[in-house]
Write a structure and sequence with these properties.
Blueprint lengths: L28 H16 L1 H24 L6 E4 L2 H17 L7 E5 L4 H14 L3 E4 L6 H12 L3 E6 L11 H7 L5 E6 L10 H6 L1 E5 L11 E4 L21 H4 L14 H13 L10
Parallel strand pairs: 2-3, 2-4, 4-5, 5-6
Antiparallel strand pairs: 1-7, 6-7
């Protein structure tokens, strides 16, 4: 972001420049103020806030987030970060396999994935006793990467790829991948860097688990992420912590997973206002990508 253009809206040290391409973003002051105002209301009467306001505020915030992302709010739930969202999606795949709703022959990913994602997939491959295929995508075009992934995946595969890779900030063609991957295969997209940086097609959201961090380029407070789950997978997708509403609807399961700070999840409307302002100013959200 060009220093000076929105400097008054961010609590950034004047002479500090962060060269990292988005590990932790900075929250605009209007969003921070909204969190504090909700916190004040929440502290006055926590029980009343939870029983009378929390669900409606969550729905409104999810609807606002869906408008930013271009997807159905009923498929969106808030989590703490993309890593938690990825773990949640992988757990859903395990549940589908255990219940006989899914048969997998292999797991396919790339050599440009986040290190914790590699560990997650290695553990899953060992549990399912199936091969983990890591496709080398270095120095390849987007078209060549898509072709290589499809050749390795075939049918009955779990494919996990980043939309924007963490090591090199390169953007993969997940729209094409999602459109060509056989329906017998499951697609999980690591979109940790996507919200606020590069849009994802609605068809991808309808086809794939999409795991997002919202505190990088998405202008949410630190510790805010989201998971978009295709409706066919709702029944298998549960929080990583067994929730009070474990056996209720998909969205309800994620609305309360024990005592935690849920206030970050309630500011979607204010974040949406910020995005709309930037859009009106013709801000190029993906200007730093390869």
């Amino acid at each position: 972001m060009r220093r000076g253009e929105f400097a008054q809206d961010f609590p950034i040290e004047e002479h500090y420049t962060n060269l990292n391409h988005g590990s932790f973003g900075v929250c605009p002051l209007p969003v921070s103020r909204h969190v504090r105002s909700i916190s004040d209301s929440h502290q006055i009467s926590f029980g009343k806030f939870r029983s009378e306001r929390l669900d409606n505020l969550l729905i409104a915030s999810r609807k606002a987030l869906s408008g930013i992302l271009g997807t159905n709010y009923e498929n969106l739930v808030y989590v703490r970060n993309a890593s938690e969202a990825l773990q949640t999606a992988v757990n859903a795949v395990k549940i589908m396999g255990e219940q006989g709703s899914l048969y997998l022959k292999r797991i396919v990913t790339t050599n440009h994935e986040y290190s914790s994602t590699n560990e997650l997939l290695s553990d899953l491959a060992a549990t399912l006793e199936i091969p983990l295929i890591i496709v080398n995508i270095s120095h390849r075009s987007r078209e060549a990467v898509t072709t290589a992934l499809l050749e390795q995946a075939g049918d009955c595969s779990l494919v996990l790829v980043s939309h924007i890779t963490s090591p090199w900030a390169e953007r993969l063609d997940i729209d094409s991948l999602a459109g060509q991957l056989p329906l017998s295969s499951v697609l999980i997209v690591d979109a940790a860097h996507s919200p606020g940086c590069s849009p994802i097609g609605r068809e991808v959201y309808e086809r794939a688990f999409v795991a997002m961090s919202l505190h990088k380029w998405g202008f949410f407070p630190l510790g805010t992420g989201a998971l978009s789950t295709p409706s066919d997978y709702h029944n298998f997708t549960k929080p990583v912590v067994c929730s009070l509403y474990h056996n209720q609807s998909y969205a309800k399961r994620f609305s309360w997973v024990g005592t935690d700070n849920y206030l970050n999840y309630l500011v979607g409307e204010t974040v949406a206002d910020w995005f709309n302002m930037l859009t009106e100013k013709n801000w190029d959200f993906g200007q730093f990508l390869i």
